[in-house]
Amino acid sequence: MSGLQRRTPLLTRDAEGLFWMARYVERVENLARLIDVTQTFESPGREAESWAALVAIMADYAGLQERGLAVDAMNVKRFYLLDPTNPTGIPACIEAARTNARTLRPLISTEMWMQLNVFHHDLLAIEPWELDGDALSRLCRRIKEGVQAHTGITEGTFFRDQGWHFYEIGRLIERADQTTRLLDIKYHLLTPGTVEERRVVELTQWNSLLRAAAGYHGFRRVAQAGFVPADVVAFLLGDTSFARSVALCVEQMDWHCSTLRSRYGLRDTAPVLERIEDLRVALGEPVLRLLPDGLHDFLDSMQRDLAKLGELIGTMFFRDWRPLKQSQEQSQSQSSPGGTQSQSQSQGTP
Fold first, then answer.
1. Is the pTM for the entire model greater than 0.85?
2. Angstrom distance (rounded) from CA 278 to CA 283
3. Given a cut of 50, is residue 124 above it in pLDDT?
4. Residue pLDDT, tens place only, 283-312
5. Of 47, 162, 197, 247, which sits most exposed with the smallest number of CB within 10 A?
């Protein structure tokens, strides 16, 4: 029995690798959701406006400009789905996830590695013809289902030790960040002026936004028939029964960090827990105070706070943490989506 009770300390580099593998995989699904909802809300003659909103929320104008690309539908879709040199695109994210997984082979399950390997091959084989119309919708659905398969396999096969907690913290930070982006990318486009336009929006496009966030059925279980936009905002931000809500992600991050401290004696968790508590307090802000003019600023602030939380976790737990410096002049004051991984190769334990 004593042999079974022995636990090998988790290397810092492995904790960091698990944290980032989870973030990159989650980022792939969330980007597929953003692309899918952007196409859904395209208006004839205003396609460029819809795709420009996606670029703005991802803070990627500079990346397109470096490539000499105009912000139009096809350029943006190619930028995120086909361009391996775009660090925020799907090819780069799945490549980074697989690279981390390869270094973690002794820790992750065989099933996790095999599924991620096949998924990586699938995403790097996307064809240009898949970026239009119904083909794009099918592609986004395939990407989402691939990530969901990874999540299910991880849930059923990954050993529940320190590594699992770091994996989950990374996934939750990324999910919370991307939920705010999904809401932000469409909020201003979904608030037209006339009463009739508002009625149509509330009955159709807000429902489409909920579907894009995988929250339609959950929302219908708690919302009244005559719901208003504030109800959708409150649901996506604050309903802890909804798996992708920011509030539930924050609540679960608190549990994982607290467990790392209490069960594994992890030091330096106090600053992280304090930052998480700050997020919880901010989410207690009444939604009606944020509408209609303050929601964008609130979401922008939430994204920055989540990015700072990720950096703080790196500073506290991942030795030689050197996150890449984020641009100080980002479009519409948006923070980049969650940062990128440092190249730390340290050998210490968290």
1. yes
2. 9
3. yes
4. 987 776 777 678 888 999 999 999 999 999
5. 197
Confidence of residue 322 (pLDDT cuts 50, 70, 90): low
- Please state the domain extents for the chain: 10-159, 160-319
Give the whole-angstrom CA distance, residue 140 versus residue 136: 6
Q: With contact defined as beta carbons under 8 Å apart, do 344 and 15 qualify? A: no
